[in-house]
Amino acid sequence: MAGNNRTERTPLLNGDAPASDRNEPRESFGSRFKRFLQRNGVYLIIILLLLLVLIPLIVQTVRSSKHRHHSHDKTPSHDDSPEHPNNTELCTSAACVLASANILHSLAPSYEKLDPCDDFRTYVCAGFDASHEIREDQAGVGNLQIMNENNQLILKHILESPAPKDTSIFWTAANPDQEIFGKLQDGYNACMNETLLASIGSKPLLDLLLELDKIYPAKEPKTTKKDESLTKAVEYLMEIGVASPISVDVGADDKDPDVNIVMVGAPYSFGLPSKQYYERAEIVESYKETIGLVLEALLKEARPGVLPFSSDEDEELTTLSKDLVDSLVALEKSMADVAPDPEDAADVTKYYNPRTLKETEAYNSEISVKHILNTFASDYTPSKIIVSSPEYLQELSKILKSSSRKTIKAYLVWKVVQSWAGAVEDSAVQPLLRFRNKLQGKAPDVKQERWRTCVSTVGNDLEWIMSRFFVERAFSKEAKDLGDQIILDIKDEFTVKLNESEWMTESVRQLAIEKVHLIRQKIGYPTQSPDITNAGELQEYYSNISISATTYFENKLSVVRHDVRESWSQAGKPVDKDEWGMSAQTVNAYYNPPGNEIVFPAGIMQAPVFYDPSIPSYLSYGAFGAVAGHELSHAFDSSGRNYDQNGNYTDWWDEATIEAFKTKTDCFVEQYHNYTVPTKNGRLPINGKLTLGENIADAGGLTAAYQSWKRRDDEKADLMLPGLDHFTKEQIFFLAYGQTWCGKMRYAEWTRLIQLPVLTSDREEQIVQRIYTDPHSPDMFRIKV
Predict the structure, then answer these.
(1) In the chain, what is the straight-line distance between the N-terminal and C-terminal CA atoms, in Å?
(2) Is 506 a member of any domain?
(3) What angle do CA 49, 52, 57 make, to 5 degrees?
């Protein structure tokens, strides 16, 4: 949902873009993937995997008289009593053979000799590690990234194919399908035309900076009136999707989730990924060098007056002073220092501070919230505003008062450059792209294949049109029905678990059960707001967005400005509970506390690694079911527990239940804080408080998924997979869960686990960034759950 990041407060995965890139307008969250597989190697791999399984399958057929009694004492085993015999019938369909091959291919080659309890991550993922390389343009590679790659390849084929015919589920050969498909292709082709983009260069970016200069000139205007130019500059940045010193958003009121309200607070980041980075001298120096190189190069390309950092109108500035860059970064650091820590910024008990407009205005004398509201929502008079951090606004006012106008101007210019540099092809912005690569542990000058960038871009800009064509190609009714069944099963299991939860008082327990029953589940894709199966509705939905095959930068500006207008038009209006916060092709899922809803896009419900209606259900429950349980668990984690059955932020837990919950969660905090990763500066612990909610969700989700599958299996036993006679079905369930999180990162600790050569020091940056900013634990520790 445009402008309301709080809707996606608890996704399964963090975005793959680094935090420093999140200022970019609608920047892709798509991952980078395996080049060989996306071309012509897929079929070769499938053939090899089939051969891998067919050989043991033949052997098994000969040994048809034997039964499987190969359970490990330290992993869950099947009940082999006469009432529940281990099912020896094999599933020999192509889907089952491929699923079995994938599991075997990922396991440690010597798994039969290993104890999974010694190192379960190596047990389930050593084969994956040995058979996957991290490309130079990747920070890492994992099963979920590979799934995303497969989805991107589907979208690439759609975008590069002729317009659809009357031979599909809901495509038609006539308008409006032709129009929306044409808009989709135009957006893609505009992005792909690198020759045209290179000939245009930095001009569109410089045009934005010229407009900013008109609003906030370097020389302070001579007037007796209060200078409102900084507020107007912030409004301009908001209009073009750029983060500024203050964040003003529209979203559901946590205490009245049926109504949209305004929230004011600190931005997500200030330039570097997190406040900790400003304490790292090497990174800060590299960052300063990057700013100097980029802004100085743009100065040389600009017309006179476009970037006037000097207050002297007669001075023609062509060299950026080091002092100015130093003061710019010092300004960023001072704001970051007084901003809330990530765990506090996401804690409703700390950020929910309702204030009147007058009170909000009094916190900061330099930026007028009242002026911003008059600009973006002139017909809306708020009865209250949620000020997520009053202390930040007060400190920000002092910081801005003590900063020179030239420094503030440089800061605003740099925010625009950071946000929009990725939308131009020009050597002037290359130092910024190299610096971002460094923060992600990539080769400095590497770029992902252009088609991947463009698939992600058009998928974000025209997400629901793209969703329509993705769903038609890659999602079936059977897949949707299985998703609904798994989630309903897990809801039932949560009810059982809640009834057995002695740490809850009876009154709280009954309200919790009611909350489970009232959780809304959205599976696959939206059929309202908008209905992606209705081409006419999509045509109307995007009618105010201009897309041309020759204007890539302007296309993105049109999308961003439209989204900002749409978001602000909802201020004070009822919440549209049919909206989705993720497109259908997204490989992710989320729980939305104020909406009390869980959302699972079609993109994450894909075969063969994660989900398939045609294979034994212990695989789908072990992978997708654990994700479904994860999202349901968020309703009762350290954040979700503050919301009642209707999505209201309220004290619905009594003191005894809260104390019992705190006792249990303190153990989680301590456990994960004791997990550390080595860096060149020493071992870095996981933030147990920041990751608390996700760790609770991982543990609760896996337990619920396992018990849900067991109940299903008791009703109708699953077939066994060929080639896996070393395992029971219960054990394969946990293999499916563990292999969901198989992956490699450019990070030195992985060298011990997966026998890779020692990596250079800059390769640790991605994992460091995640520990500072990501509420999810690193994947290897998610496997440990």
Answers:
(1) 32
(2) no
(3) 120
Q: Decide which of 175 and 618 is more confident.
A: 618
Q: Do 226 and 302 reside in the same domain of the chain?
A: yes
CATH number of the domain that residue 232 is part of: 1.10.1380.10
CA–CA gap between residue 95 and residue 93 (Å, rounded): 5
**Average pLDDT rounded to a whole number, residues 508-529:** 96
Residue 16 has phi, psi (to 5 degrees) of -75, -20
Mean pLDDT, rounded, of the chain: 85
Q: b/e per residue, 469-496, with b = 16+ CB within 10 A?
A: bbbbbbbeeebbebbebbbebbbbbbee
Question: Is position 161 within any domain?
Answer: yes
Buried b / exposed e along 405-424 (16+ C-beta atoms within 10 A): bbbbbbbbbbbbbbbbbbbb
- Which amino acid appears at position 729 of this protein? K
Number of separate domains in the chain: 2
Q: Using pLDDT thresholds of 50, 70 and 90, give the confidence band for residue 426.
A: very high
Considering only CA atoms, which of 615, 412, 386, 644 is closest in space to residue 515? 644
Averaged pLDDT for residues 174-192: 93
Distance between CA atoms of residues 527 and 464, nearest Å: 11
Residue that is last in its domain, among 363, 395, 423: 423
pLDDT at residue 72 in the model: 38
Q: Check: CB of residue 25 under 8 Å from CB of residue 3.
A: no
Give a yes or no: residue 742 inside a domain: no
Quote the tokens at residue 550: 């020759």
| Dihedrals phi, psi of 347, to nearest 5 degrees | -100, 110
Tally of helices (H runs) and strands (E runs) in the chain: 32, 12
Kindly state the DSSP code that residue 598 receives in the 8-state scheme. Answer: E
Are residues 417 and 346 part of one domain? yes
Report the phi/psi class of residue 700: left, alpha or beta, with left for phi > 0 and alpha for psi in -120 to 50.
alpha
Length of the chain counted residue by residue: 785
Q: How far is CA 313 from CA 316, 320, 337, in A?
A: 8, 16, 34
Average pLDDT over residues 570-581: 97
What is the amino acid identity at position 494?
A: F
The parent domain of residue 289 ranges over 202-423
Q: Please enumerate, as own/partner, the contacts of 290-293 that have beta carbons within 8 Å and a separation of 24 or more.
A: 290/431, 290/432, 290/434, 290/435, 291/325, 291/328, 291/329, 291/414, 292/320, 292/322, 292/325, 293/431
Helix axis angle, 143-159 relative to 450-461, nearest 10°? 80
CA dihedral 495, 505, 689, 272 (to 10 degrees): 70
